[in-house]
Amino acid sequence: MSIKTAKNQKFMTDRTMTSSSAVLTLLLTFYCSGNTYGEELNNRRFPQDFMFGVATASYQVEGAWNEDGKGVNIWDVATHQVPSPVVNNATGDVACDSYHQYKRDVAILKEIGADFYRFSLSWSRILPSGFDDKVNKAGVKYYKNLIKELRANNITPLVTLFHWDLPQSLQDLGGFQNDIIIDRFVDFARVCFREFGEDVQYWMTFNEPISICHVGYALATLAPQINSPGMGEYLCAHNLMRAHAKAYRMYDEEFRSAQNGLVGIDVNGAWYEPSTNSSEDIEASETLMQFTYGCYAHPIVHGDYPEVMKKNVARRSALQGYTRSRLPEFTPEEIKYMTGTYDYIGVNIYTTELVTPAKGGSISEMGIGPDAQVTSWQPEEWEKSSSSWLKVVPWGARKLLQWLGSNYKGARFIITENGYSDDGRLEDDARLSYYERYLSKIRDAIEFDGVDVFGYTAWSLMDNFEWMRGYSEKFGLYQVDFNSPNRTRTPKKSAKWYANVTRTKCLVETCVE
Ligand SMILES: *[C@@H]1O[C@H](CO)[C@@H](O)[C@H](O)[C@H]1NC(C)=O
Ligand SMILES: *[C@@H]1O[C@H](CO)[C@@H](O)[C@H](O)[C@H]1NC(C)=O
Ligand SMILES: *[C@@H]1O[C@H](CO)[C@@H](O)[C@H](O)[C@H]1NC(C)=O
Ligand SMILES: *[C@@H]1O[C@H](CO)[C@@H](O)[C@H](O)[C@H]1NC(C)=O
């Protein structure tokens, strides 16, 4: 998950609030009261065409890491390092064994009543060398079988082309820091559209670009574990956005008329709440929103990075002695080419952080935090999950959607992830409560703020390999017995609750239409 990773890691240098102000205490008393604490849930039924689904990602569930001709990717390499960077030396070598258990996956999707299943394609399973010299028939067949099984059960596939498992061959050339990634990604996307596009209506190019670039190339806490804040991470962002746009345009030119699908990308971060109502804090919040969401959504909507991002990075780069900004520029042709390269925008929603301007700090510091000149944190008192970065803040979901709706007018959104981590217990009341309170705020954003949200995806279908946290943090609606050869899946209480929601499209006993 996410800056969950950043789904799962926090971005900035965080500091812990030592003393909570009276204002904060008030806020907390008010906001931390979820439904189980007396807050009313939205009682309006979701629209009839609203879609409910669940998500996984290839490396987190498939296993079969070296079977049937699959090539090596950066997560195979990261998890096999000695010493291992992963909790308990865990790997995704077998994970949930979905490569062999996919029929069981579809069976539990059916039990949940999912309208759609969001999963990702393993690039190195399809193109073992990373390049398109040889298409691995067994890899293609696996995904064709999965899609066929989904179709037979009336479940719509929503396919992410890239959820972090880059072929190692491309990483050896610099990964997203090298612009050869652009055409290589387009080559991979073309194979996928050609092989699967007749049966896939919803495509996502990249999952959580900021996790890929910021966490992978600056914080170094996701593969490829590169530590290049403010330099490598911006090169990554620049190449990733151009790869997205080129794949989108290629779909337009080569596939859209025949396949008539939709292509999007998903963005994430926390909701960055101003820590007070001072104009400085409000501005700090806006700046961080632009450096995180804006960095990836602004180019596809408006063709370029947000002004505040260009301005801040250029100013600090000059002060540091660089003769050009560390943030690469799009050419006028690229701006035109990039504008409008989305049919919808996915958003992964997990948590909230408070934001204030950064005080002090050396001019030599680089990276999103120093360039944005902000600092963010979460108060200790906020409701916890099993993940240090994931505090339960339902109201942040509505504010995030309001912000996206007003910044990207006319865009259609789908929540591509939302979820909660615990120890894997079957009686997972805290997860159930998280889901109902977040969904209620999402319903509010649709009803009262007019944000065009057409679907919701729970992360995750089942407990799985949670990146550097291994199997120590569990996000599943289904429990997976990682000691059983078949990786037995068992529904948790939240799965039964979610099955009610997918059936009734309603969060309470009786809904208003
Ligand atoms: C992880 O691997 C190291 C060797 O790199 C070993 O010393 C350690 O005991 C292992 N830890 C676990 C939990 O298996
Ligand atoms: C900030 O202003 C809003 C709207 O006026 C108000 O509802 C909220 O309580 C204020 N928050 C703080 C922390 O003062
Ligand atoms: C594992 O699955 C296979 C095939 O579905 C089944 O025959 C076998 O009994 C299962 N084994 C266990 C231990 O559940
Ligand atoms: C699901 O709905 C049924 C029928 O309304 C109800 O009896 C049951 O308690 C619900 N289950 C959960 C986990 O909410």
Brief characterization of the structure:
Belongs to the glycosyl hydrolase 1 family. The chain is α/β, with parallel strands linked by helices.
Query: Would you tell me which CATH topology applies?
Result: TIM Barrel
User: Helicity range of the residues?
Assistant: 40-55%
Calculate Rg over CA atoms: 21 Å
Envelope shape: globular
The helix tally amounts to 19
Mean pLDDT: 94
**Contiguous runs where pLDDT drops below 50 for at least 5 residues:** 1-6, 8-35
Strand order of the largest sheet: 1-2-3-4-5-7-10-11
E-strand count: 13
Q: Can you summarize the main beta sheet?
A: 8 strands, parallel, barrel
The CATH class label is Alpha Beta
Query: Superfamily at the CATH H level?
Result: Glycosidases
Tally of individual domains: 1
Protein name: Putative glycosyl hydrolase
InterPro entries: GH, GH_1_N_CS, Glyco_hydro_1
Organism: Phaedon cochleariae
GO molecular function, one term: beta-glucosidase activity
Question: Keyphrases for this structure?
Answer:
513 residues; alpha/beta; TIM Barrel; 8-stranded parallel barrel; 3-stranded mixed β-sheet; 13 strands; globular; disordered N terminus; binds 2-acetamido-2-deoxy-beta-D-glucopyranose
